[in-house]
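Reviewers of the previous submission asked for a worked example of the structure-prediction workflow described in the proposal, so we include one complete record here. The input consisted solely of the amino acid sequence. No template or homolog information was supplied to the procedure at any stage.
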Amino acid sequence: VDFSLAVFCTAAFALRRAPAPPAHRAVLRGAWDASSAGGPPAGRGGAFARNPQFSLVVDTACRAHLELQAPKELAVGLTLVGPGGRGGARIDCVLVDEQVVSSGAFRRGFTFAETAELAAGVYTLVPSTFEPGQCGAFVLTVCTSAPLRAARPIG
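From that input alone, the workflow returned the following structure tokens.
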């Protein structure tokens, strides 16, 4: 891939290589279909709960890097909730004090989130689309600096 990068700013600027993701990796595949494409956390009508959701069990505090890949036609985001409280269980909304990390603004086809310190505990990871009803397959990659005990879909 060839590309150019131009930076214009009024302050000092340094560009560095992105750090490598942590070594332990879990790959989770799923899809949004007519019954599971719930849309974003702030969506109207409580449809967020229909999104595919995954439980992550972390035994040791670690660094985490989460990636979500989907068709480029879909604007996607991801949210990690927990530990404790509702972490590890199916959720229908995201409470501010429960959110550990979010990918932020929805992006087409790919997004990621990172946290330098993920405490030991049980979490719920929710990939979502910008609009309810948007269908397509996705791949979640969870990279951690310590092994996960479990990474599995929540029924």
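The chain has no helices and ten strands. We consider this example representative of the routine output the project will generate in years two and three.
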